[in-house]
Description:
Elements: E1 2-9, H1 20-23, E2 30-39, H2 46-56, H3 64-75, E3 86-89, E4 92-96, E5 101-103, E6 109-110, H4 136-143
Parallel strand pairs: 2-6
Antiparallel strand pairs: 1-2, 1-3, 3-4, 4-5
Amino acid sequence: xxxxxxxxxxxxxxxxxxxxxxxxxxxxxxxxxxxxxxxxxxxxxxxxxxxxxxxxxxxxxxxxxxxxxxxxxxxxxxxxxxxxxxxxxxxxxxxxxxxxxxxxxxxxxxxxxxxxxxxxxxxxxxxxxxxxxxxxxxxxxxxx
Length: 144
């Protein structure tokens, strides 16, 4: 299995307009980690897995497993995946472009911004401790 992580671009101009949807991803843009799941790579390229993630995060999954992931994504009240956002397939990060994908070099500039349709995942926890924003019981349940 491989971890797929969805990052929303939180870049805004001086007037507060979301600029990534028009200009695309730029290195240094503030990025919010909003969703993660495990995928079976099954010999597929990162781009093919990213396309599957794009379909899931836009409400058009290809199968029952994707339906469940899409339901979980939208249950978090997240906006659709858009130009300028990033899908990380394992260590390979790909930015949504006008058509296709643009490789991301150097990793995302993670921020914990919370806004309309963008809600960060709980912060990673120290080993043996529950993640920030979760209860100890939820942490025990996740480890099973």
